[in-house]
Design goal:
Length: 182
């Protein structure tokens, strides 16, 4: 990725998330911004069981971030996960697909957007289980259980794509040690 494209993306993605905090008649301003790769808006196909409540809250989170969602309720979620290549150990309550990747579980919209921008050789992203405080699993007291968003590579191995809760200064900042500052 060229430096100018990287800088444009680095500036536009936070702007889109900043807008999501602003409301217009009770709706997110970021809802008008669809994830765009090249010139093509992409639809997030979400597969979930017929009775899951947290899946709906996660879908709302994704829609607020600008994703167009195509919901597919199914009693065969295990088959959907197997067909997508989701490892059983990373399974959660819903599986989504976008841009040739799967998104398993309560992955934050920010990380899905990053995946679509960076386009790594991978099958997708996963948040195993249902960690408290992840999108769709918000707690009334604001508590966030530490969790990792895993990148599932094409060879089946995983690496940490992001950690939550994010620490202040964990993105896009360089901290100098005392010896380096002088």
């Amino acid at each position: 990725m060229s430096v100018s494209r990287y800088l444009a993306v680095a500036l536009l993605v936070p702007l889109a998330f900043g807008l999501s905090a602003c409301s217009r008649d009770g709706e997110s301003a970021a809802a008008d911004v669809a994830p765009v790769i090249g010139d093509t808006a992409q639809t997030l196909v979400v597969h979930e069981g017929p009775h899951c409540g947290c899946c709906g809250v996660w879908r709302e989170h994704m829609e607020a971030a600008g994703f167009q969602v195509d919901l597919r309720k199914t009693h065969e979620l295990g088959a959907v996960k197997a067909d997508a290549g989701v490892p059983r150990r990373l399974a959660s309550c819903h599986t989504a697909q976008i841009g040739g990747y799967y998104v398993e579980g309560h992955v934050p919209a920010e990380e899905v957007q990053r995946l679509l921008i960076e386009r790594p050789e991978a099958w997708g992203l996963a948040v195993a289980g249902m960690p408290a405080g992840a999108p769709g699993m918000e707690m009334p007291d604001g508590r966030v259980q530490p969790y990792e968003v895993l990148l599932v590579k094409s060879d089946g191995s995983t690496e940490v794509f992001a950690r939550y809760p994010k620490q202040a200064g964990s993105c896009c900042s360089i901290e100098l040690e005392e010896d380096d500052a002088t």
